UniProtKB/TrEMBL annotation:
Organism lineage string: Eukaryota, Metazoa, Chordata, Craniata, Vertebrata
Pfam annotation, one family: DEP
Gene3D superfamilies: 1.10.8.1240, Jelly Rolls, Son of sevenless (SoS) protein Chain: S domain 1, Winged helix-like DNA-binding domain superfamily/Winged helix DNA-binding domain
Protein name: Rap guanine nucleotide exchange factor (GEF) 4, isoform CRA_b
InterPro entries: cNMP-bd_dom (IPR000595), cNMP-bd_dom_sf (IPR018490), DEP_dom (IPR000591), Ras_GEF_dom_sf (IPR023578), RmlC-like_jellyroll (IPR014710), WH-like_DNA-bd_sf (IPR036388), WH_DNA-bd_sf (IPR036390)
Amino acid sequence: MLYEKYRQYMAGLLAPPYGVMETGSNNDRIPDKENTPLIEPHVPLRPAHTITKVPSEKILRAGKILRIAILSRAPHMIRDRKYHLKTYRQCCVGTELVDWMIQQTSCVHSRTQAVGMWQVLLEDGVLNHVDQERHFQDKYLFYRFLDDEHEDAPLPTEEEKKECDEELQDTMLLLSQMGPDAHMRMILRKPPGQRTADDLEIIYDELLHIKALSHLSTTVKRELAGVLIFESHAKGGTVLFNQGEEGTSWYIILKGSVNVVIYGKGVVCTLHEGDDFGKLALVNDAPRAASIVLREDNCHFLRVDKEDFNRILRDVEANTVRLKEHDQDVLVLEKVPAGNRASNQGNSQPQQKYTVMSGTPEKILEHFLETIRLEPSLNEATDSVLNDFVMMHCVFMPNTQLCPALVAHLLKVQNRREWITPSTTRGGSSAWFCNGQPCMVIFSKKTTWPWLSWRSSMCLYQMMHG
């Protein structure tokens, strides 16, 4: 019932894949055991599992270069180690690997960056945790290079050492470029309940750059950061889901591309990095409208499962306020936590704050003016609201529209007998004209509005005269 009630309001957020329409079902797929996803639904995540079945040549080479460099410059780092009466052959310690990498190059500026660079090797299986249970961590944990998995691993020759010295800096640069993405995938592969506040902030920052999420509010993006799951598939041609199946997840493409296939029509479109699919079946609680087939090898996705999707959708509507005129939304506000808790002290209920999601220019302006007029105290939050408006109003309301709208709002306020006039600190006020008509009694630079701070008044003065 909730979706039926609010479906028309969520059209922009919950649009179906391009060109996909509801049609008949097709449940004839037989699961392909070789093409099962890296992360299965409802199975505990294993962050140490490799993403690719076969390491790429450049990552294999990078691992070989780093191993040779360590054996040449700090051979004590790779040795047999004992822990809890068990011996681990030819392994390194995570903290020592981070220390060593920082010492070798100027392109590594932090331990977090070094962790991401080692994670690149771990994702491809070129470096592994000795028990295959950990992603790379800057801790006293044991890791082993792929070449050291064999008991008869050869020592590097003099020629190999020379080649290593020549290639080491280029290898470091390559890993430093790949490290941030690997670090992000490492965080996304953690169970949501194990993500730290820093992890959630990193995920949120990444979501700001994803095209499919650009229209979502800050609140929704932050909620998504806590529930998104990383999923990857190694082989092109893998069927992610079939037309007619029950919808269980919403997907966002991080890497690669997929074909959208409708029975009887074939491929109707191709989706690429930054696109999303799978929401239609969740919103309508209907079967999948199309099949999704991987177009290439090694595709990566962000996945939101149905339970989390429905909860976020309910939260969105519960915290959304809509102003309608003639059955059309003219202002949509989202409730957000009050930014200044100190201002709520002594109040029986916390003050509600709202952020504008969409609306007509006139209603956005009216909301802005009412917000700063009703602010109970002059503080930085008031100035911040005004500064945001001064900087952004030209996007939705140029000065030629802003001036008449301000006059109309002033007259509306005066008709309610809520007179707003400038108060002069020193000097006199002056009349400001727009297109030859008196627009508003405005202040000189020594005049302030009674319900704005001096700094806010100056911003408004500059806006009107600029």
